[in-house]
Structures are given as structure tokens and as C-alpha cells.
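User: Please run a holo structure prediction.
Assistant: Happy to. Please share the sequence and the ligand.
User: Here you go; the ligand is zinc ion.
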Amino acid sequence: MPVSYTRKQVTDWLGAHTVAKAHDYVNAVSDLRWIRNDTLGGLVQGTRPRPYDVRVYFHDIDEDMWVESECTCPVGSYCKHAAALLVAGLAHLPQPVSGVRQELVTWLEGFRAARTAPVTRSKKPATTKTTHALAYVIANLYRGGPEIFLYKARVGTDGRIRAFDDPWDNVENALVKPPKFVVEEDLPILRGLWLDRSGKYAGSFGLQGTTGATVLERLIATGRAFVSPMASPMHSGEPCALHAGSSLHGKIAWHSLPDTRVRPVLQTEPPATVLLTATQPCWYLDAQSGEAGPIDLPWSAMQLGEFLAMPSITLDEAALVGKVLQEVAPDLPLPPAHDVARVQVIDATPTPRLSLDTRTT
Ligand SMILES: [Zn+2]
């Protein structure tokens, strides 16, 4: 693997003056190549008809690296052509092979800094008035369950969110260089959403597993999380601000479809507007009370997830499903079987109430 170096090192080696003069020659570099991994070679078109042949040799690569250069120009060494070759070579350096993404590197740096920094991290005085803040709107989509949508929202003088001005999803860049309306407490949330981006739509984010539950908890703690009572965040009515509530007891109910098939659904007592069944634990959000909290369930999240993925079943199939459940998962609720007692029988002869006839003229 060739030597890796930075623009700052090029300036240290050749001097700012030479690097500045090299600026016009960077595009005149051709045939740039690495020789034996420690020598950079190339041709640089100068003032003479024949391009200059330039070599830069790297020494002490492992620590305190330095370079020697050779050039066929009258100057001979440490010339602007060598500087131009080095600057052009920066673009040819291999990308990190480990594939560590920039946002992860940034997070690691931030994490390290937070751990090693002295405890004197004083809060900056709020001299500038914040006009915008990040708002998290959780909407229950028709398909694929609840998703999080981000908004750059307008903030009133009391610090509360007034209007959801613009949908915003520039999370990747914000992790590297946060815009002004993204504050410190948003960053771990955005990191969590980004690293586990399972959103079904561009600009939306899903929540899954224990990480999803942790992110959700942090998100609600910001006071800028909302639940949309409607299925689409675009026609969300008035999103309801969320706050932490007590945990609710959960149960499985059998939801009847118009074609008489049934499927298992999770319900809370009392019922809540949005249930997140992919997080661990599952969470509820209520668009009336604004409460949000975990759901108490006697089953593990994985067991529940597999169970809720059951396709809709007919009442005839319910007997078979019930039998299998009793065998392999006796603690899960059985589907309703044919229940004759619940069918209302009308034991009477129908009699007409409206008669139609042709009028004589
Ligand atoms: Zn030269």
C-alpha cells in the first residue's frame, strides 16, 4: 500500500511558498504513479516543451516521515514541480480499506473527547435566540408500521415548537457538521437513526430492537417529539407533543377483517394511537394524552414479532393454527375458533315491508 500523507505535510516538507507556486501546475501533472510503494513519480509540464520528470522519495514512513525530491528542471529538488506532484498525488491516495464511515469516525472522536475532557464543560450562555429546532414526528403509516420524520421547526419565544416548517433529512452531513438548529442532545439520536436506518421511505427512519427503544426514549426526552394521529405526516392534523408516561399492559387481540379472516394485533390497555412492535421493548404513543412508554408483555420481542407476522387466517385455518400454537408456544394466545354461540340466529320468516307496483293510467 502506498504511503499516506496529508496536504499539511506537503506544506511542511516544501514550504508554503513553493506549494503556492505549485498551484498552477497541479493540473499539468501526468503519468502519476507509485513506484515500490515509497516513491511517487510523474511528469509535470513546465515552461519548456518537454515535461519535467519528477520523483519524490518517502523516508521514515512509520514515524516523522520526510521526503526527498528529484526533478529534471533547473532547480532540481524541492521545487514547485515536486510540490505539484505531491498535491496531485493526494487525490490518488487509496480510500481507507477498512470502510469506516465518516460519521462513525466523527462519533468515535466525539465519544473519546467527551470521555477524556475535564468536567469543566461549561454550558455556553444562551446569547443568541434560537429560532428553529429539530422536531421528530412519528407517523403510523398504512404499510410498514410507524416511521420517524424530521422537521426543521420554528420555535416560539417560550422555546416551544410553533410550526413544522420544512421536512429535513440531511442527517449524514449533520453528523459531520451539525447545522445551528441541531443541538448536542440531538446528535446521539441522529446517530442512532442513521446507523440503523431501516426507513421504508426516503427521509423517514424506522426504530428497531433495543437500540430503537433507546433512541425513542432519548427522542421523547428532548420534548420535541410528536405523534401524528393520521397515517401520513403530510396530512397529520395537529401532531401531539409526547412526554414520558407509565408503561401499559399489552395483550394480543384478534382483529377481524371485512372478509371474516382474522389476524393477531397487539393492543394496550387502555388502547393507544401508535404501537411500535419492532422495538425491544415494544412502545406505545398516544395522540390524545401525549403519553409514551414501554409496553409490558409476557413474551419476548422476537417471539412477538414472529407471531404478529402471521398472515391473516380464516376461521377454518384457525383450528390448525391453534393446534400448532398449543404445541410449540402454549403461552401465546390462540385464535378464535368457530363459536356458534356468538352467531346471532334470526329464527323468523321474513315479511316484506315495502311493496312496489305499476300505477294504472
Ligand atoms: Zn522541478
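The chain has a mean pLDDT of 82.
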